[in-house]
Each structure stands twice: as structure tokens, then as C-alpha cells.
Amino acid sequence: MSDKKRDQGKPKKVLADYTKIGATFVPPMIHRVGPWEFTSWSSQTLPELIWWDVIADRFSHRFAARVAEEIAKHFKTRNKGKSWWAFISDYSQLSADDVQDLKEHLNQTDVLEQLIEGLVDFVNLYPACPISQFLEEPPAGIVDADYLQHFTDRMKELENKRTRSGVLVQAQAIYMGFVLGKLHVREGLALADFPEVEKYPSTEHSKRVGGLHLRFGQHDGRTHAAQVFRRCLGSIFLAAQSRVVSFGF
Amino acid sequence: MTHEEQIRELIDAIEVRVRQELRARCEAYKPDFRAPEVFNVLTALIARQATLAIELASAPQMWNGHSAPLFLRAMTDVHITLSWILLDPTTRARQYIDHGLGQAVLDLEHRKKEMEHVTGDSREKLEKIIAAEESWINAQKWSFLVGVNVGSWSGKTTRQMAEEAGILDFYNYVYTPFSQCAHSTWYHVGRYNSWPSESPLTRQLWMPFIRDASSDIWNLNLLAKYLDKSFNLFDEKALQREPSSETQEWLYDEIHSRVSSNDRGENASAVEGERLTPETPPESRAG
């Protein structure tokens, strides 16, 4: 009997595919590919992109896309490092003059007023948020209980990154990458048909476009995002703690 | 009021007090969202400590040398774990979670293996258990990416952890003696479940028996002491404030005010660890 046939007859041991290193059984995927660096959607990526849903929810996805386009156009002509300007923490590096320049551009293109209107309730939940710089005055930090509940309900949908809202906030970043000229896609790949994402998830093609898994936050190899990731939702959690959080004892 | 009613009221008061103390600490603790694991693990451990205290306090029939050490040992374990994690919370809270997820994956793999031999209703039930277990793991990290550490979660012995945390005496005088009961070593079994034969003809034989261990309310004093230790450590290290848990003192007063002196068993000897000189057992009641 060949070794192969003999092995087939043996019962397979638990964790047989794992590799034992010291006291640890390492899963095959980790062992073959090497150490992985994990990016969490709920605690890393979503807090950075949540503001796009705030704007789209208040007005429309079309308006959110327009804001993204104008911001990207503004920074395309300026040498501002490798940021895509889709992430909240990108705005923490701007000086007061940079912010003023950006606001002037958004005002000239007729999106600033609406943008501020869309963001004001959100930044009141999180006054230290870098995008609060869009406002004329620092946010008062007065929490609107109804808005907080609405925001919490939105989060329930966004927790799943494959929902329409989840995919569309990710699409904002992709769109900005295209406008900035920082993202190039080979012809024939699903992402080359990017506008199709607007139909997600009603067509099979839109699912292929929207189903691409991108590791936001590590697009440029920097660690800046790690410094501010999670603060946004963290602050909102603290603001909301006494209202919506129950410890269960 | 009957003795049972006095005890029941005392138990209710303990539960209310412990829950209040726990809640106050969890509400005061502001999580760092750059390292949510720290919040998750530290608050879970003090909740575990509170749970053990409430569960033991709620079961007067377990306030004896057979059973109380099982709970008290678990409480000392929690305290050592908490103390060691608090020396480097960011790294060690993650390590603690990763080990737990690995254990869950190992359990999952064993259950999948079991599926090879199971049929009918049992198979359906097992499938549901596997799905639930997998879902619990996946909510935290994809199960196929979780390593399985079959060693100790910290990579150290409990003694080493206690030593590094500066509580070696606690390990020696509390954890180790209570562990004898938890592991049913001769140290414990030779006192509670075996005794030299009464007859000089068979003196070399030790007879099995179940030691009569009456309920001793002062076991509550010990659980309150360990609860205070963990809450106070949390106060100092996590909340960075003066230790403020005084459950032991409060409980002492409660026992004196609620339970009549005859029922308090002032001569009872609930002490840390085993009773070193147990009374001679009454007639063997084995078998």
C-alpha cells in the first residue's frame, strides 16, 4: 500500500494543518504567507470614513461625491504628502492657512455652506474632530439626543462594511484616489468600472466593484492614522455613555 | 425574623453592594479607543471577580471547606491575572484575548472532529454549537487566522506572574493552599475525604469519608477581602485614584448587625487556605 493511501486511511488529527512553533499552533495561512497586520473595519477604518456617511445621510451620495471631488481637486495642485483626504485624521495635519485655502475653494465651488450644515450635529458629538475646522466657530459640544439616536442607528448599518452605505463610504476614498491621480487601475479589472459602484448591490457587476477589499489606513505605509484611529467613535461613545450604554449589572 | 430570613437579607444586601461597587468603577473608567482590549479585559476581570463573590455569597450551603475554596481559589487566580496584566495592559490584554480565542478555536476543532462520528439529532445540535462558537470567534478575529497557544496564556507560571506583580506572599499563602482543594490533591483529600482507621488492627488504612463541614459565614469575609484587593488595584492602576473599596469592613458590620451571635459561629475558622488541624471526624460515613 502506498504511503498516500495509508495516510488517507488514518483519522486526521485536530489542528493537523497547523504548524507547531513552541507552544503555539500557527494556522496554515499565517505560516505560509507570514505575519499579518490586521486592520479592523469597525475600530480603525470606519471611524476615519464615517463623516462621508454623515454627509450622504444628511443630503445625498451625489453631494458627498461632489465634496470629495472638490477637496481632491483642491489638493491635487498642492504638495501635501501622500494623503488622500478621505480620512478624518488627514485633516489634523493642516495649518489654519491650509484650512482657510480649502474653505475658500469649497465656497467658490458652492459646497461649503451645505457641507457645514451637514457636519454640525456630528462634530457636536465629537468637538475635537479634525474636520470641525470646516466650521466658522468651534463646535459647542451640545449633544442633540435625537441626532445621537439617529447616528447610533446609522452605525448599526455601517458596522457591516458590505452594506450599501458601508461600501459607498469606502467608495468615497477610492474616488478621491482617482481624482488625485494617486490610484491607477489596470484596464479590465473590476475597479476600472468604478462608477458602477453607485448601483451596489443591485447588479452583479456592482458587487464585484464594491467587493474589493482595500486596506485603508495603510495606503501610504505611514502610521499617522494609527495615532488617531478610533478617537472619533471613542469620543462619541463617551458622550453617549450615560444615554445609550448599559453595562448590564 | 428566622435565621434563614436573616441570611437571605444579608445575601441580597451583598449582591446589591457588589453590583454598585462594580458599576461605579466601570462607569468611572474611560476607555482608550486606541487600545480597546485594555478596557475589555480589565472591566471583564473585575466583573468576573464580582460574579464569583456574588455566586459564593448566594449559596450558604457552600460556605464550607469542601466548596468555598473552589470559588476563593478562582478569585485569587483572577486577582493575580489582573495584577500581572496591569503591569503592561496594552500588550497583556491583547495576549489574554488571543490566548482565549486560540482555546476557542481548539475547542471548535475538537467539535468538528466529533462531527465525524455523530448522527441524527445529536449531529444537528452539534452543528448549532459549532456555528455559534465560530461566530463568537469570527466577531473578534477570523478563526482561520487565530493561533492556538497550548501553553499558559501569559507564557509564565502563576507563581512567576505573582512574583512580577509583587504579590508572591498572596500566591504562597492563599493561591497555593486553595489550589489543593481545586485540584483535589492529597493535601486536601487527606483531610476532607480520608482518615486513619479507628482500629489498631487496620491503622495503616485510611478510610474514605465525607467530612462534616458545616456552613461557616466567615467564608464571606474572605471573598470580601479578595474582592477589595482587586477593586482597590483597579482604583489605583486603572482609575489612578486612592483605593476606595471597603467591602470587607462593611460586610463585617453587616454580619454583626444582621445575624445573631449564636448563628455567626464566632469560633468558626474560615481562614485562608486549608484548616491545618481538622477535628477528628465523627464515625465514618463513607459508602
Attribute tags:
heterodimer, A: 249 residues, mainly alpha, 2 domains, two-stranded antiparallel sheet, 11 helices, 2 strands, 2% strand, elongated, B: 287 residues, two-stranded antiparallel ribbon, disordered C terminus
Task: Kindly describe this structure.
The complex is a heterodimer of chains A (249) and B (287). Chain A has helices at residues 3-9, 28-33, 41-58, 61-76, 96-108, 112-125, 145-158, 164-180, 204-210, 224-228, 231-244; strands spanning 19-21, 24-26. By secondary structure, chain A is mainly α. Chain A has a two-stranded antiparallel ribbon with strand order 1-2. The longest helix of chain A is centred in the N-terminal third of the chain and has 18 residues, at 41-58. Chain A is elongated, with a radius of gyration of 22 Å. The termini of chain A are far apart. Residues 213-231 of chain A have low confidence and may be disordered. Chain B folds into two domains: 1-87 and 214-271, no CATH class; 92-164. Chain B has eleven helices and three strands; from the N terminus they run αααααβαααββααα. Chain B has helices at residues 3-28, 36-57, 68-85, 89-114, 120-138, 158-164, 168-182, 186-192, 219-238, 247-258, 261-264, and strands at 148-149, 194-196, 206-208. Chain B has a two-stranded antiparallel sheet with strand order 2-3. The longest helix of chain B is centred in the N-terminal third of the chain and has 26 residues, at 3-28. Chains A and B meet through β2 and α11 of A and α1, α2, α4 and β1 of B.
- Could you state the order of secondary-structure elements of chain B as H and E? HHHHHEHHHEEHHH
Broad structural category of chain A:
mainly alpha
Mean pLDDT figure of chain B: 90
Strand line-up in the sheet with most strands of chain B = 2-3
- Count of domains of chain B: 2
Broad shape of chain A: elongated
Report the C-alpha radius of gyration of chain A, rounded: 22 Å
Kindly provide the radius of gyration of chain B, computed on alpha-carbon positions and rounded to a whole number of angstroms: 22 Å
Percent range for β-strand residues of chain A: under 5%
N-end to C-end Cα span of chain A: 63 Å
How many strands in all of chain B? 3
Overall pLDDT of chain A: 81
Oligomer state equals: heterodimer
Given the helix and strand composition of chain B, which structural class is it? mainly alpha
Distance from N terminus to C terminus of chain B (CA atoms, Å) equals 38 Å
Percent of residues in helices of chain B: 55-70%
Kindly state the number of beta strands of chain A: 2
